[in-house]
Request: fold
Amino acid sequence: MGESGEMLDNSYVIRPNFQHKFKPATAKECIHQILKEELVSKQYDPEQVPALTRALSEAVKDKLKEMGYDRYKLVVQVVIGEQRGEGVKMAARCFWDADTDNYAQDIYMNEILLLHLPLLVLQSDPCW
Amino acid sequence: MEEFQTGEETTFVVDEISTIIKESVEGAIGGNAYQHSRVNQWSSNVVEQCLSQLTKLGKPFKYIVTCIIMQKNGAGLQTASSCFWDNSTDGSCTVRWENKSMYCIVSVFGLAL
Reply:
């Protein structure tokens, strides 16, 4: 029985073929562009940083959507820290399907702030 | 053809996940002071413990667990995340834990199969 509403024909494609597969290198380039534009000579201002992090994560997510990964779910995380000589460590683990899912990340530093942006991409199936 | 999946099993329950995260963090780093040489191992332990507890739940989900451990130094830190997923079944949970010398922020993202 089909779902009501969506008029998608069955493509019977369970795994992405090579053209539609997520390519981490392309995504990393794309993230890097966005970071360079947004963060050149920005300072760490506690009032503005919350809005900046949210805006950055939305911008990266939208840019990735435009790249055509329509059968993928995306998770974008942005971490901005102030450089004051403190120690920071970030770790991540994922429980996913290694054939189809992947991640890309980028790090940006200037004298004032440090930004780490992991992007995770998981296959979904919108037609079930 | 009948529906094989019921609604109860395939939604992300934030409270349950939040408890699991707190227990994992307490177990891995509770009671320790920030030490640069051990932070590597701590963050791996936190993340791996969280993930193994989550997979034991046996739900049809893919999980992503991230952990940030930061020394208390007066510096600021901000995190945000943006996700493109199915709102009815997928979810995330973030837990912020601290002691006298460090902060630990753990995020879990769960995506239904």
The helical segments of chain B are 14-29, 39-56. The radius of gyration of chain B is 16 Å.
